[in-house]
Amino acid sequence: MLNPAFPDGAPNWVDLGTPDLDGALAFYGGLFGWELLPGGPEVGGYGMFTLEGHTVAGVMTVPEEQSSSAWSVYFQSSDVSSTAQLVNQAGGRLSFEPMEVLDYGRMGGFLDPAGAYFGVWQPRQNPGVGMIQQPGSLLWVELYTPDVPAASRFFGDVFRWKTEPLKVEGTEYVYTTVHPAGTGPELSFGGLVTMSDVPAEAARGPHWLPYFEVEDVEGAVAAAKRLGGAEALPPMQVPGVGTMANVTDPYGAVFALMKPQPRQGGEGGAPGD
User: Fold this and answer.
1) Is residue 125 packed enough to be buried (19+ CB in 10 Å), middle (13-18) or exposed (0-12)?
2) What is the longest distance spanned by two Cα atoms in the chain?
3) What values do phi and psi take at 166, rounded to 5?
4) Are the C-beta atoms of residues 55 and 136 closer than 8 Å to each other?
5) What is the Cα 176 distance to its own chain's centre?
6) Residues 177 and 95 reside in one and the same domain
7) 118, 177: one domain
8) For 166-218, how does the pLDDT look when each residue is reduced to its tens digit (9 = 90+)?
9) Is 267 part of a structural domain of the chain?
10) Which residue intervals define the domain VOC in the entry (predicted)?
11) 3-state class (DSSP) for residue 99
12) Structural domain of residue 169, as residue ranges?
């Protein structure tokens, strides 16, 4: 499960790049109940999606002709510049130089050796998302990659992640979960998936996929369609994990929905919990 303390290497932020801010607000507001806290010119119009007063994601406008709409996942670092050096040493590349974001923190953008983009956030006044593992908020992140062992080595070198094999109940499939250094598998926050295992996601190339919790996956998929989105992967139940589906928003940004299977004691969980 995600750790609200955000240790180094854990996901602490997600944001959406979209060509239509008003249209995105209509979609995600209708789907999750999100509201928009607009950003001023000092942050280039970068805004925040909020739910019940808590920040759940960032959002920015991207020119439609220059970039496709997409979700990005960011990971905690206490020193973005040092992380940039580790990325380079491990065979990754810089997408943009680490930079200051007013007094909120520092950020950097990178590509792993397979080409999957990821961000790094060094918090100051903005510690990260303010709600996790609740309906309408971030629950899990997943990397689609052509080479899981290579990705494990790369992110292990950069963030000191630890990996654990997880055999999916009732199948022969083994899923690779990841958790921060110095923690155990109970704090797994994501997984690594071989792209060829999921052709619909393989067609998008290597990428990180955020999961948002919902109370009813089938109902949320139906709502996404009504709001102009599309089903990318139909709802499926994974024994011991929960029900999940992948959808795209009206502008092509892909993300996942998940209703975790209740753990003992009645709380939801995610793979590795």
Assistant:
1) exposed
2) 53
3) -130, 110
4) no
5) 16
6) no
7) no
8) 988 777 789 999 999 988 898 999 999 999 999 888 889 999 999 999 999 99
9) no
10) 10-123, 137-260
11) strand
12) 138-260
